[in-house]
Amino acid sequence: MMNKKFSALTMLYVANVLDGGRTVEECPAVLQADIQSILASAKKTKTAPNNLLQFSDYWRFYFGTAM
Predict the structure, then answer these.
(1) What is the C-alpha separation between 67 and 44, in angstroms, rounded?
(2) pLDDT of residue 8
(3) Distance in angstroms (rounded) separating the CA atoms of residues 10 and 38
(4) Which structural domain, as residue segments, surrounds residue 39?
(5) Is residue 33 part of a domain?
(6) Residue 1 falls within a domain, yes or no?
(7) pTM for this predicted structure
(8) What was the pLDDT predicted at 57?
(9) 60 φ, ψ to 5°?
(10) What is the distance between the alpha carbons of residues 67 and 10, in angstroms, rounded to a whole number?
(11) How far apart are CA 38 and CA 55, in angstroms?
């Protein structure tokens, strides 16, 4: 479990990477370390990827588009 707080912008980019819309290298350089950290943590826990994908689904439901 991660104890660090991340910005909403970082989480948007993480969701976009998980959806295949971007690669980590295509994300802003200042966010790449945090994005990699979140993705690494997601691989270690079974619940993290599902939660991040749910966030992506939430985004699509409310805004009608992929990020």
Answers:
(1) 25
(2) 87
(3) 9
(4) 8-63
(5) yes
(6) no
(7) 0.64
(8) 63
(9) -60, -40
(10) 12
(11) 14
Within a domain: 19: yes
Return the structure tokens found at 33. 């370390």
Give burial (CB, 10 Å; 0-12/13-18/19+) of 10.
Answer: buried
Locate tokens 């690669």: which residue? 23
Domain count within the chain: 1
Q: Mean pLDDT for each consecutive 10-residue tract of the chain (67 residues)? A: 77 88 95 91 61 61 55
Query: For the residues of 10-29, what is the DSSP string, one character each?
Result: HHHHHHHHHHTS--GGGS-H
- Say whether 21 sits in a helix, a strand or coil: coil
Roughly how many angstroms between the first and final C-alpha of the chain, as a whole number? 25
- Answer yes or no: is 2 within a domain: no
